[in-house]
Specification:
Largest sheet of chain A: 6 strands, mixed
CATH superfamily of the largest domain in chain B: Metalloenzyme, LuxS/M16 peptidase-like
Largest sheet of chain B: 6 strands, mixed
Strand content of chain A: 15-25%
Distance between the termini of chain B: 35 Å
Radius of gyration of chain B: 23 Å
Low-confidence stretches of chain A: 1-32
Mean pLDDT of chain A: 89
Helix content of chain A: 40-55%
Low-confidence stretches of chain B: 1-31
Number of strands of chain B: 12
Number of helices of chain A: 17
Shape of chain B: globular
Oligomer: heterodimer
Number of strands of chain A: 12
Order of helices and strands of chain A: HHEEEHHEEHHHHHEHEEHHEEHHHHHEE
Distance between the termini of chain A: 32 Å
CATH superfamily of the largest domain in chain A: Metalloenzyme, LuxS/M16 peptidase-like
Order of helices and strands of chain B: EHHEEEHHEEHHHHEHEEHHEEHHHHHEH
Structural class of chain A: alpha+beta
CATH class of the largest domain in chain B: Alpha Beta
CATH class of the largest domain in chain A: Alpha Beta
Strand order of the largest sheet of chain B: 2-3-7-4-6-5
CATH architecture of the largest domain in chain A: 2-Layer Sandwich
Helix content of chain B: 40-55%
Strand order of the largest sheet of chain A: 1-2-6-3-5-4
Shape of chain A: globular
Strand content of chain B: 15-25%
Structural class of chain B: alpha+beta
CATH topology of the largest domain in chain A: Cytochrome Bc1 Complex, Chain A, domain 1
């Protein structure tokens, strides 16, 4: 049973993000086997795209509604607006006033929540199959009926600021992640964090939220995904009845900022109170639109997936200079983003040595291709992860929703496994050579400063 | 210790909900949960086995629970159980650490071992086609760990590094201090990982002795869930675990933890923007007959997400925190009851007052009919989510066996919740919440927090 502490919640936050990045990466690939035959796609007259998957394994369903709006749609000075609006989406409509949404779902034995990223904002309900209409009706209601209230906004802004303090301000490693993106993207909105800067949160107005809501929350800018124990033919009629009365909205403005090519290494330091040095190296890489994304996916796996991966074996096991090391890459991004590595320096080791050790591993794979065993292991892991991932309707829905929302389209998933299977050792070597270069990287280093703290005080009282 | 796209995905509301409640169902779905009907048998060497067939997907989870955890560490060698668990997959008498990693990962499987307060778990997740390998590797790490000196030193230095790194996490700092205050001279006092003082004292002989005494089949529960028949499981078990030698039965004697006689405040200075606040005291054990009434009461108080009183007051009406909640950690012995929250330093006193107000309120008057019925309908209706994947079910089956809940637990649970009355809720609130004698731990910039004491 999990401990209800911030510690475990933090670990969870990271796991959660890992889980998103990872399962999208893996689950999507094997879904290729049969995704086209399982997805029932419809587009309603108002432009809402609906994806239904019949999965009668258990009498439950996941309802997810994905809006094509995230921090990449924000403008300078209003970083965090997408996420702020996501919080406000729980503040009620005329029909379902504040507090009723989650309460209704819960008393029907379900759960609901939402998440915001750079590319999307999504809302979900996990409910019994016979309660699917409740979840759908609530989502239809708040797609356009949200009541934005000044007092609620003022309160919720404080909650979001607490969230920022929790996630970023008081966490040295998260702070470095935030800075890495700010340095690697100078013009593109991936520059700022999803949760926003304090100054932007303070500057936001109710009017900003209203305009944003009117611009992006419309059926033609959303995808509805339902996976579980359902009959697609019957459910689509229910969905039409609930969602088609919502009028089509204006076409949201396109986000056209493209980040120019990086020409030369960028380095930065973060000096603050911390126990251990921490390093991050981010490389600008393509997204799903490039064929290289498949080889990059395999490269990431060979470098960092498990105890048999190259980085773990070299830096953690053999050289014993890092406590933790890894790389992250997710090709399902709307715009090209980063493949990044991180390393927590082991007490007694030098951060310079850790950074150089990372580069040596990259050079090794640039100089000679991975072994057949490594390549096959990465491919096997992909297939296995998919099968394990199928245990959950939520995961299946998430893959479809994300693929659709970032612009790849859910059908893109279909060719995925096939492409992964056809990747050769030379492909992996080539993308390592092409992207993991000094000129293409941004390097951030957390330099720990000693604590200014006085010794802990203990007092007792009656 | 992983950094994973922490700033690219923000999950709103109460994060802990997302993973634990991927799927849920209403009471109509209980029939399905009630279908859980594992085959249970005890092998000649005393190994207790539960097998639940689930053939929807070609995957299998094999999960071992050894009834020895951090609570059984010698008091000057805290961290021993965790070190033993951490060394299981770092080499056996016939396989090196690298060989184990390579073999399991090549087939896309996973091995995991983890020490807890009362017990240790070790599990294998494997595709059906590789089931033979899964049993072979799990048995190898459980029956034949080598505990090589160089691996021990490496893992020890790794854990020491992690302990140092955890000092950057105010939640960890507060949690460790909280246990010290609430469980003085009790085994739950120390962190499972041990401390910078105790870990260096552990010798290889301690590791071997602990392993030899504790890792015996008659102290172990093995649950197997997935695409495998009971007969196939029996055959694998006989082949891989049949030779595991029965050990001495271990008589455990536990001192019950005492409640604090008065409130204790511990303030820890850290230059942060937020105060991390933990409040609480000794709670209940899992085998306490009031467990279900406490579960309902605590849902209404602070475990019910946006339906809970604490969330409503502290977050929604005062905007003081992103997260606030309460939790009873019901272990073999009474574990802690903890309210946790984080708020800006300057608001610490206001938040603490808000929590105490809610603790008093639920002790002073009955909950409403609506609160009671909504708590019950959620707890009953969402029960199937706790067993909706093979790994969750393997985990829960082992706990059902450990706590002696009986294999009919899955069909009894709705009744156990349903029979809780408003009087029960009030009674257990009065009996198990102590808002006048609690531990309060605050990690914060104390000059700004100015906690009243």
């Amino acid at each position: 049973m999990p401990a209800f502490r911030r510690a475990s919640r933090r670990a969870f936050i990271r796991l959660m993000a890992l889980w998103c990045g990872l399962f999208l990466w893996s689950a999507s690939q094997v879904m290729a086997l049969d995704v086209a035959s399982t997805v029932h796609e419809s587009i309603l007259s108002n432009g809402l795209k609906v994806l239904l998957v019949e999965s009668p394994k258990a009498p439950v369903v996941t309802v997810q509604i994905w809006y094509k709006v995230g921090s990449r749609n924000e403008v300078m000075g209003r970083a965090g607006l997408s996420h702020m609006l996501e919080h406000m989406m729980f503040k009620g409509t005329e029909r379902n006033p504040k507090g009723t949404f989650s309460r209704l779902i819960r008393k029907n034995g379900g759960n609901d929540n939402a998440f915001t990223s750079q590319d999307f904002t999504a809302y979900f309900e996990n409910v019994a199959a016979d309660r699917v209409e409740l979840a759908l009706a609530l989502e239809a209601d708040r797609m356009q009926g949200l009541q934005l209230n000044e007092k609620e906004f003022q309160l919720e802004r404080e909650v979001v600021k607490e969230e920022r303090r929790l996630r970023t301000e008081d966490d040295p490693q998260s702070s470095l992640v935030e800075m890495l993106f700010a340095q690697a993207f100078l013009m593109h909105p991936y520059h700022w964090p999803v949760i926003g800067w304090f100054s932007d949160l303070n500057a936001m107005s109710l009017e900003d939220l209203k305009t944003y809501y009117d611009t992006y929350y419309s059926p033609n800018n959303a995808t509805l995904v339902v996976v579980g124990d359902l009959k697609a033919d019957a459910l689509i009629e229910t969905i039409k009845r609930l969602f088609e009365p919502i009028p089509k909205g204006p076409t949201p403005p396109a986000q056209r900022v493209a980040e120019p090519e990086q020409r030369g290494e960028r380095r930065f330091l973060l000096k603050r109170e911390a126990e251990l040095p921490f390093a991050m190296v981010g490389y600008r890489v393509p997204n799903y639109t490039s064929d290289d994304s498949y080889a990059l996916t395999i490269l990431e796996s060979i470098l960092s997936h498990g105890k048999s991966s190259r980085l773990y074996r070299s830096l953690v096991y053999e050289q014993k200079i890092a406590l933790a090391v890894g790389t992250e890459y997710n090709l399902l991004q709307t715009d090209p983003e980063l493949l990044y590595c991180f390393a927590v320096v082991k007490p007694g080791s030098k951060i310079q040595d850790v950074e150089q050790a990372l580069y040596r591993e990259f050079e090794r794979i640039q100089e000679s291709p991975p072994t057949d065993q490594e390549l096959q292991r990465a491919k096997n892991q992909v297939e296995a992860e998919y099968l394990f991932g199928q245990d959950s309707n939520f995961r299946q829905a998430m893959v479809l929703g994300q693929a659709e929302t970032v612009g790849a389209g859910w059908r893109h998933i279909d060719k995925f496994l096939e492409r992964i299977r056809s990747i050769t050792a030379q492909d992996v070597q080539r993308v390592a050579h092409q992207y993991l270069t000094a000129d293409n990287r941004t390097v951030g280093t957390l330099v720990p400063l000693p604590a200014s703290a006085e010794p802990a005080a203990v007092s007792e009282r009656h | 210790m992983m950094i994973r796209q922490v700033n690219t995905l923000i999950v709103s509301s109460i994060l802990s909900l997302v993973l634990t409640v991927m799927l849920s169902a209403s009471s109509d779905q209980l029939a399905q949960a009630a279908d859980i009907n594992p085959v249970r048998f005890v092998m000649p060497n005393g190994l207790t086995v539960l097998v639940q067939e689930q053939h929807a997907l070609p995957i299998v989870q094999i999960h071992a629970l050894i009834k020895a955890g951090a609570a059984h560490d010698p008091s000057d060698k805290a961290g021993l159980a965790n070190l033993v668990a951490g060394l299981l997959d770092e080499g056996t008498t016939t396989r090196s650490a690298n060989q184990i990693g390579e073999q399991i990962e090549f087939v896309g499987g996973a091995l995991q071992a983890k020490a807890g307060e009362d017990f240790t778990t070790a599990s294998a997740r494997i595709l059906k086609k590789d089931i033979e390998l899964g049993f072979e590797l799990l048995a190898d790490i459980l029956l034949h760990p080598a505990f090589a000196e160089h691996e021990l030193e490496r893992v020890r230095s790794q854990i020491l590094g992690e302990i140092q790194s955890e000092k950057d996490d105010p939640g960890q700092v507060a949690g460790k201090a909280f246990k010290q205050v609430v469980f003085p001279s009790h085994p739950y006092r120390w962190p499972i990982t041990g401390t910078e003082e105790t870990l260096p004292k552990i010798k290889r002989a301690d590791v071997v002795q602990f392993y030899t005494r504790e890792y015996v089949p008659n102290q172990t529960i093995l649950t197997i869930v997935g695409d495998i028949t009971a007969d196939q499981a029996r055959a694998q078990l006989a082949k891989r675990f049949g030779a595991w030698k029965r050990g001495d039965n271990i008589a455990r004697t536990f001192a019950l933890p005492h409640q604090l006689e008065k409130s204790v405040v511990k303030l820890i200075e850290k230059d942060l923007t937020q105060a991390t606040i933990l409040m609480g005291h000794v709670g209940i054990s899992r085998t306490n007959p009031d467990y279900y009434a406490v579960t309902v009461m605590n849902y209404i108080l602070g475990a019910g997400g946006f339906s809970s009183r604490l969330m409503d007051s502290i977050r929604d009406n005062q905007g003081l925190a992103y997260h606030v909640g309460s939790h009873f950690e019901a272990n073999l012995m009474p574990g802690p009851f903890i309210v946790s929250l984080q708020t800006r330093n300057e608001a610490a006193n206001q938040a603490i007052t808000g929590v105490v107000t809610e603790l008093n309120r639920i002790r002073e008057g009955p909950v409403t009919d609506q609160e009671l019925s909504e708590a019950k309908s959620y707890l009953i209706g969402s029960f199937p989510l706790r067993v909706d994947t093979i790994s969750k079910l393997a985990d829960v089956l082992a706990l059902v066996e450990l706590y002696g809940l009986g294999l009919d637990y899955f069909s009894r649970y709705p009744k156990l919740i349903e029979q809780v009355t408003k009087d029960d809720v009030l009674r257990v609130a009065k009996q198990y919440l102590h808002p006048s004698r609690y531990a309060l731990v605050v990690v914060a910039n104390q000059n700004k927090a100015k906690v009243k004491s």
